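Hey, I'm writing a tutorial for new members on how sequence and structure tokens pair up, and I'd like a real worked example in the thread rather than a made-up one. If someone can provide the structure for the chain below, I'll link this post from the tutorial.
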Amino acid sequence: MADTEKQPQHPHIELKVNHHHNHHHHLSISKNESNLKNQSSLSIILTEIHAGYFRISLSLSIQSLLWKILIEPIKDAHFLRHIFTLIPSTALTFLWSLALFTLLTLSFLYLLKCLLHFDKVKDEFSNQIGVNYMFAPWISWLLLLESSPIVPPATLHYKILWLVFVAPIVILDVKIYGQWFTKGNMFLSMVANPTSQMSVVGNLVAAQAAAEMGWKESGICFFSLGIVHYLVLFVTLYQRLPGNNKIPAMLRPVFFLFFAAPSMASLAWHSVCGYFDTASKMLFFLSLFLFLSLVSRPLLFKKSMKKFSVAWWAYSFPLTALAIASTQYAHEVKGIMAHVIMLVLSLISVLVCLMLMIVSALNIRVPVKAHKHISKETNNIAAI
């Protein structure tokens, strides 16, 4: 009887209170779960994104430049060149808009990473591979500026934007090129790898964009800065010094940068001179030879192709740069063989870019770690 008397005598009231408490308890868990999901997903995205993702915007930007050149009407053009004039101008506008949207999105996410995870950005800047892709966003902006359907090169807006986009390239030049001959552990022979050519490409694209708007002296300045360092870098990489062996198997697509640099040098000198002279042709033939040397060794890229990676986008930019150089060469030579090379390289470039867009879209996935983190936090909240 004593035990019975100690038990609560108001079961209905207690049930009502517990029901009310549980209702708010579950609402609180749902709300916290939603907040944790948003915070965790964004945090994981910012942690995992790196400057190498700008390969995507780099490829789309130069692809829009290729399309702009191909659909441009030319007097006395070869009949093979007329095939590309069938491409509507709206296709170029769509591609340019897609490249701009991609670049804005990546720039916004990377800016957030700089604000929220600056320590990881510093680690990336200290990495001998990651630091070279710091040039990629600025190269993308310059290529978008060149291919823009709304900003002609002669306008004041073009010149101001060129100055804004070139300033970070100059700062990075001073930082990286200065380290190559002043710091013992950062000598070129110690840190050289294929991605080091991104610094060269940045200067050559800046030279091309400057020459297009009539600033010949600025074009020559950036061209000389890029081509001199390219010659030193090419010899260093050709000798297979220690830095060459520090590229993981998954990053081997960056070997395509070997022919991206001479292709951009050919285009830059063409813009400076105003026509495709002997020097431009020599650089084009060098890039074509390096391209054939790489594609004839498919086993070199076997391991990197087993699983999709953003490094696959490293194939697109060099191919497109070579395709653009071939269009300028064909326009100067006007021979059937030159136009066949232009047609083949342009089609390969477009197909590779299209394939990469499809494969990338199919491999987009929500971070899994966020859901695990949410479940753990939810269980902790429920246990309170």
